[in-house]
């Protein structure tokens, strides 16, 4: 197992990605590798744990499922072989409502909802590169969690296939999850100290 030595002119595929070392975590966006290896902070993990608890509790016994990283999400992968897949991400948390998108390797297709929790190293990627990727992939709802300020920005896909900011929520707010009729998340619980 090796790690990619990035050459700007080279595009990598999921087939390449599968050969890289498990000691480091990588994502591919348009064939470009991004190293996401550093361990998340304690605050990041607390927020992720609370969000995962809310979603998994709500989804128990329902068709949709929630997953947390590390778990490969292969975007634009339907009908493609591993050497043709150029976008592989590991969102912090995501929800899949179509069980046909799940296989032994992870998810093949776009999740219905993706949540990314910012860290100093991933902020630009999550806010700009992944934002555009998830929009292009047709992700219905995208949350960007800012642990430092205890805020969540929620973007929903409009009829034109573009993300719209549907709200910015703070630790005293309650978010109604857009892809479900009756899931409310109290941010006092999510951002607890």
TrEMBL record:
<dbReference type="InterPro" id="IPR011335">
    <property type="entry name" value="Restrct_endonuc-II-like"/>
</dbReference>
<dbReference type="GO" id="GO:0004519">
    <property type="term" value="F:endonuclease activity"/>
</dbReference>
<protein>
    <submittedName>
        <fullName>Uma2 family endonuclease</fullName>
    </submittedName>
</protein>
<dbReference type="Pfam" id="PF05685">
    <property type="entry name" value="Uma2"/>
</dbReference>
<dbReference type="InterPro" id="IPR012296">
    <property type="entry name" value="Nuclease_put_TT1808"/>
</dbReference>
<keyword id="KW-0540">Nuclease</keyword>
<dbReference type="InterPro" id="IPR008538">
    <property type="entry name" value="Uma2"/>
</dbReference>
<keyword id="KW-0255">Endonuclease</keyword>
<keyword id="KW-0378">Hydrolase</keyword>
<feature type="domain" description="Putative restriction endonuclease">
    <location>
        <begin position="15"/>
        <end position="177"/>
    </location>
</feature>
């Amino acid at each position: 197992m090796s790690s990619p030595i990035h050459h700007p002119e080279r595009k990598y595929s999921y087939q390449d990605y599968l050969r890289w070392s498990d000691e480091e975590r990588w994502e591919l966006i348009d064939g470009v590798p991004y190293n996401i290896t550093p361990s998340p902070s304690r605050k990041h993990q607390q927020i992720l744990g609370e969000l995962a608890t809310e979603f998994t509790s709500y989804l128990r016994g329902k068709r949709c499922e929630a997953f947390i990283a590390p778990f490969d999400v292969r975007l634009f992968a339907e009908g493609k072989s591993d050497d043709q897949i150029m976008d592989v991400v590991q969102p912090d948390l995501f929800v899949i409502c179509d069980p046909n998108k799940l296989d032994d390797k992870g998810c093949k297709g776009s999740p219905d909802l993706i949540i990314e929790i910012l860290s100093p190293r991933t902020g630009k990627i999550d806010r700009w590169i992944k934002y555009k990727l998830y929009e292009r992939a047709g992700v219905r709802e995208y949350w960007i969690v800012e642990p430092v300020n205890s805020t969540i920005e929620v973007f929903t896909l409009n009829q034109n296939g573009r993300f719209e900011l549907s709200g910015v929520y703070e630790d005293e707010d309650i978010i109604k999850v857009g892809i479900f009729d009756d899931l409310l998340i109290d941010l006092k619980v999510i951002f607890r100290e």
